[in-house]
Amino acid sequence: MARLSYALLLGLVGAGIVHLAILFLLPSYSVRDAWTRLSAVAAPYDTVRFDREKLAGKVPIPADPFIEAAACRFDLSRGSLHVHGEGSVPFWSMSLYDHQGLNVFSISDRATPDGTLDFIVLTPAQMQHVRSRFAPDLGQSVFIETDVEEGIVLLRVFVPDETWEGAATVFLDGISCEPRPLD
Amino acid sequence: MLKTLFLTLLVLTIAVGGGAASVWVMLEEAGPVGAVSAGPWTAFPSAGTREADPYSRARFARRGGVPLGPSEGITFTAGRDSNGRGLRRECAYRIAGAMPASRFWTFYAAGPEGALLPPFKRRRAALHSQMVLRQSDNSFSIAVSRHPMPSNWLAVTGEGPMQLVLTLFDTPVASGARVDELSLPRITRTACDG
Questions:
Q1: What is the ipTM of this complex?
Q2: How far does the CA of residue A13 sit from the closest CA of chain B (Å)?
Q3: Which of A3, A174, B59, B92 is at a distance of 20 to 30 A from A153, taking alpha carbons?
Q4: Alpha carbon distance A116, A141 (integer Å)
Q5: What is the pTM of this model?
């Protein structure tokens, strides 16, 4: 009897450990996160327009019908990331997602000078490097420091009605995502 | 010998089975924590961020998606009206009341899984702040119905449960400013078919 209750107790402790192990390992082994799903359809630094018809079910398209999106994957170990776009849309916003698909940084067009899309995403070490030297060609770019090494940049655009569809397409298709090696 | 084997198997069964089952129950059945509520509307500002608790994170990992960041906006969903009755597509609702300050908002009707309802002919089951008609005091009301309505009409189709999704973009609400005093429009049931 004593051995049975000991076994039951041991089982419960084990159940607790298994519970915690599953809970904390689940996010790392998920295949539904934005990173994994985007990897399946695009190479790093390819800007993918989240087309509601062509990519339905393959990438996490925002459910909001007035929002169009495009995304690219990046890897900061290959140098800082330069995100640039041109065009005029009523609203755009940008989010950085980490390897698990968690939102780590977001910014909207109101927070940038004259609403232009021009960002440099870099790690704290790369930031130190840039600060320590004069880099004249960076111009107006906004610097975003992040501890995420591999991640996703996702751009959202507000499309109030069909007449804005063209402007949104020009904006989203024109987004460039480029690694910029630090020299 | 046999007894030891039996006890070992018992320990392993309880540990693996109990551990897996308890995680499943917590993720599927227990309600998420960290919700911000205003009347029938609920939002999860920390869902899909690093501030989320481990259960919300695991739940998010299973569902996937690209949550809005605090500088972008916040999404509220309602599955019930202001009197606590479940929202149904065969009923008509009136949405009216104060809306928090934001650059713009979007409003759409979705099925239980969160996907936009199919359109009524060419009319999508969605509206946004720049297309609603307003009174002279800037207030507005939206009719949610299967039948055409004057003024602001959110056309729904089909039957069964639905949810209403309201997203505020570029709003101080999303960055956590005074979420407690938040006031969102009321959802009032006006009629039901059949």
A1: 0.85
A2: 7
A3: B59
A4: 9
A5: 0.87
